[in-house]
Amino acid sequence: MPPRPFGLYVHFPWCSFRCPYCDFAVTTSRPMPGERYADAVIAEIRLRAHAFRGRTCATLFLGGGTPSLWEPAAIARVVEEARALGLPGGAEVTLEANPESCDADRARAWRDAGVNRVSIGVQSFDGAVLRKLGRRHGPGDAERAVREVASVVGNVSVDLMYGGRRSSVETARADAERLVSLPVTHVSSYALTLDAEVLAEEVPFARLARSGKLAFPGDDEVVSQGRAIAAVLEGAGLRRYEISNFARPGLESRHNLLYWRSDDYLGAGAGAVGCVRTEEGGGRWTNHRSVGPWLAALDAGELPTASEERLGPSELANERIMLSLRTAEGLDVAWLGPDRHGEVAALVRAGLGEIRAGRLRLTLEGMDLHSAVAERLFGSGGG
Ligand code: SF4
Fold first, then answer.
1. Of 16, 164, 231, 364, whose CA is between 20 and 30 Å from 344?
2. Is the CB of 65 under 6 A from ligand 1?
3. E strands within 163-302?
4. Does the pLDDT at position 382 exceed 70?
5. What is the CA radius of gyration of the chain?
6. Which protein residue has the closest C-alpha to ligand 1 atom 3?
7. Which atom of ligand 1 is nearest to the CA of 17?
8. Which contacts of 279-282 are long-range, i.e. CB under 8 A and separated by 24 or more positions?
9. Residues ≥6 apart with Cβ < 8 Å to 355
10. C-alpha span between 112 and 122 (Å, rounded)
């Protein structure tokens, strides 16, 4: 078998402002040393590339932060570096963008730099919901951004967020309805997360929610909002191919599918994460989240790794179960050890999963309980 391809993720941490729910590696410091940052990203990619020798880069994802604030010339240099790792012409190259930094001129510059997919952080088309999320754009900015970018780049994904203050089943449904009237090929629909166990760092909304100063919708309400969005998107022909992701046929995110299929990825940039697996196990690294220490390491010719995690066979198997069950492709039941087939049957009997073509896929009810369902199958697999 030819070696599995890998994805390249590049993190650009600068944002215009910090949203009060965001736990990504983000900075609002100025000036943004865009060219110097590109030099360092390229240096890191070259240092890390030896771990991927003999393998081809299949996708590039420029995430953040707000990489649409990066100079297009710097983006073009990163795309070129990915080409040197084998990224084919026409392969998916995604740029994350905020509505405020989207217009047709910029979209043309991104396209000329090699970007062929733009993911826009719309979050909502409801002015009150956006204000309560602390976002600075309005519904009109979001719609204009989608239309202008789509007219140039064509392949536009939109992020929607539900479960915030002022969100309701009605606002969630209205957001999805407005979205499907726009030229959008893909939607990522996520609930606002303020759970300290999941967040990478403390964020203002989580602190205020804990102290009772801000109230957010309860779990059942949040599930209902997510279901209202899913119903509209699926009704409009966007297939739910992952718990939180919907796409027109053939326009699923190739890069994100690579994560969910347990393929490897080279992460570069402040706060980026990367993962390489071998027969014996695997390793995951996390870079310094702050630009200063990340740059200092690269200036010294060293890897900017803040922490590393060794992944043994059972951890890799559990991760594969967790990730596969997020997707409509599901989990290969034959790959699970026979000792887990009884548990699979119990999940099907409980209405949490179904078997199609030898693969276990979660039902709507199963998706809402995804982590708990996956954990019932842990400790098996690897065949
Ligand atoms: S724009 Fe995105 S990355 Fe930047 S602070 Fe807001 S949520 Fe975080």
1. 231
2. yes
3. 186-191, 239-242, 245-247, 264-268, 273-278, 281-287
4. no
5. 21
6. 65
7. 5
8. 281/310, 281/311, 281/312, 281/313, 281/315, 281/316, 282/310, 282/311, 282/316
9. 333, 344, 348, 361
10. 24
Domains identified in the chain and CATH numbers: 6-259 (3.20.20.70), 313-383 (1.10.10)
* Separation of alpha carbons 110 and 276, rounded Å: 29
Whether the predicted pLDDT of 383 surpasses 50: no
Output the residue whose Cα is nearest ligand 1's atom 8. Answer: 22
* Average pLDDT rounded to a whole number, residues 72-89: 98
Model pTM score: 0.96
**pLDDT surpassing 50 at residue 319:** yes
185 lines ligand 1 (CB under 6 A): no
Which run of H or E residues covers position 348? Answer: helix 341-349
The residues pairing with 361 across neighbouring beta strands, listed in sequence order, are 354
- Strand ranges in the chain using DSSP code E only, listed in sequence order: 6-12, 57-64, 93-97, 117-123, 156-162, 186-191, 239-242, 245-247, 264-268, 273-278, 281-287, 305-311, 331-332, 353-356, 359-362
Integer Cα distance of 276 and 49 in angstroms: 11
| Nearest to 206, CA basis, from 194, 216, 188 | 194
CA separation for the pair 130, 21 (Å, rounded): 12
